[in-house]
Amino acid sequence: MRTGALCFSTDVSVRPDVLGRDVEEAGFEILLFPDHTHVPVHLESRWPGGGDLPESYARIFDPFISMSWALSATTDLIVGTGVALMAQRDPIVTAKQTASLDLLSGGRTVLGIGAGWSREEAANHGVVPAERWAVMREHMLAVKEIWMNEIASFDGAHVHIEPMRSWPKPARHPHPPVLVGGNGPTVLDRVLELGDVWYPSPAKGLPPMRDRVAELRQRAEEAGRPCPEVWVQVFGDGPGVADVVRSYEDAGVDAVIFGLPSAPRDEVRRALDSLRRHVAVLASGAG
Fold this sequence. Notes:
Largest sheet: 8 strands, parallel, barrel
Shape: globular
Distance between the termini: 17 Å
Helix content: 25-40%
Number of helices: 10
């Protein structure tokens, strides 16, 4: 099983280039950066984490900037967004940003996408909150058109792009992996249409991961397409983390992405060291 990390890199926490080096040196293969352009002061949307919204949500660097610093500081690390709020991002600009990073890094990027939980944040970008999933879908389809075609165009309900030319193209063909975040009842529909990877954050009240992975595999086979990988996000670095990872491995999950604290470098390195020890125990078959 592959392992990776996600971190809110901010102006008061570990820098993304330093974080990238530390994650790679710790033996993890993947690093993802979240995306929030801002936090509205008057916020009625419920944060899925419960309680007060952490300050890091308002302080994170733009994820594509963080990606560029982390990629330039590493040699093998896969770096991406976890996840970019695609309804809020211009598809032409996003296509160019991701393709540029993928080409310059030799094919080490992933584009994680989601619609986001903050209706107020989406509205500040001119997105009707109730339509953000539909807007996300069309933005991602338009990005793929730009990546894959010398002359690209798109005509949808929310996106209209006249025939255009845009380079660079990504290093990988037909495009970098698209990671679709979410764990709602219709998420597999979006994964099968748009994605190469499903990226859920498990929560109470949902079907067991083993059942959802099996459903994804069956539906991919019925659709005649390769089955998307599954990268599950895990929080915490305590002694029980190895058992959690083992349960996901048994369920057919391809990678586990550990949430790191948004904190100074020393604290983040301690978390990485703890996770590395627990993963090493799992890999050895002990415990």
